[in-house]
Automatic annotation (TrEMBL):
Keywords: Activator. Residues 11-57 form the Cyclic nucleotide-binding domain. SUPFAM superfamilies: cAMP-binding domain-like (SSF51206). This is Cyclic nucleotide-binding protein. It comes from Lysinibacillus macroides. It holds the Pfam family cNMP_binding. Gene3D superfamilies: Jelly Rolls.
Length: 193
């Protein structure tokens, strides 16, 4: 699993092999069982994660107590909660493992020390955040501009592996539609092919 992380670092940094190995040996990698909650909505985050293997869902409870899925994180994606700018630093989301996962676990308190020790790590994190933010902007624009059927088509084009990895009611929530609407869309599309 550490080779996945080294490959990822190669994409975003110019760290030497020695530095990459030192970082990999300093970080904590955990196997996390399906159903494990990494962060509960309302809790103050103390950790961040990088998915080496598995799928993690991000959701929140709306005012009626209904779960609203806002993201799925899979291999080579980072999970962090940016609450530092808020007066109430509590997380707006819950993160739960949909599969058995292997994740890098970062301690937010130690993070600054790691950045000071390995400046390329801070650069890598910034590039990763910029990349993720750009993707989120595109996804939001797509969500707003497209019909539910077009959203589903865009989703299967961009993340086809998730179709069979996540429960359909959670996928429907992510797409902003009911499970029944998702079933109708899938049936309609299957009849066209």
């Amino acid at each position: 699993m550490k080779d996945i992380l080294i490959k990822y670092m190669d994409k975003y940094t110019t760290l030497s092999e020695e530095q990459k190995l030192a970082i990999v040996n300093e970080i904590q990698i955990e196997e996390v069982k399906k159903g494990t909650i990494l962060l509960q909505q309302g809790d103050i985050p103390t950790k961040c994660y990088f998915v080496l293997q598995g799928c993690i869902r991000q959701y929140s409870l709306d005012e009626a107590g209904k779960e609203v899925t806002s993201n799925f994180y899979t291999e080579e994606q980072a999970i962090t909660s940016f609450q530092h700018h808020k007066q109430d630093k509590a997380s707006s989301y819950t993160f739960v493992c949909l599969e058995d996962c292997i994740v890098v676990v970062g301690d937010l308190i130690v993070e600054e020390q790691m950045y000071n020790k390995y400046t390329q790590l801070a650069i890598m994190t910034r590039k990763m955040i910029e990349h993720n933010f750009g993707e989120m902007q595109d996804e939001l624009a797509t969500f707003i501009a497209l019909s539910p059927e077009e959203r589903y088509k865009a989703f299967i084009k961009k993340r086809p592996s998730l179709i069979n990895r996540v429960p359909q009611h959670q996928l429907a929530s992510y797409l902003g539609i009911t499970p029944e609407s998702l079933s109708r869309i899938k049936k309609r599309l299957n009849n066209h092919f």
